[in-house]
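Students often ask why we bother encoding 3D structure as a string. The short answer is that it lets us treat folding as translation between two languages. Here is a chain of 91 residues written in the first language.
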Amino acid sequence: MAHAYILVVADDPEISEHVGQQLTNARYEVEHVMSNDEALTRIQTRRPDVIVIDFLRPDQAGLELCRRLKQDLLTAIIPLIILTSRAQPGH
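And here it is in the second language, the structure alphabet:
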């Protein structure tokens, strides 16, 4: 039985490694990228079953990636999981 393929988009290697290890332990196939451009290139090659996005990257990159994915008919149906380290709104 094939395992779900999950793309993790995070510019912090520690976050990426931690999330990836947890998903790998749960028997998912995981690939890591650090930028929106890398993510979009990978998605063209192989569409992931789920994308995990570190939302609080520089220049609102996480928000921009979400917008781009949801505006494209080919990627709009891919479920997104948003990660954030913000403890409270506005902090």
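Translate back mentally: The two ends are 44 Å apart (CA to CA). Keep this in mind for the problem set.
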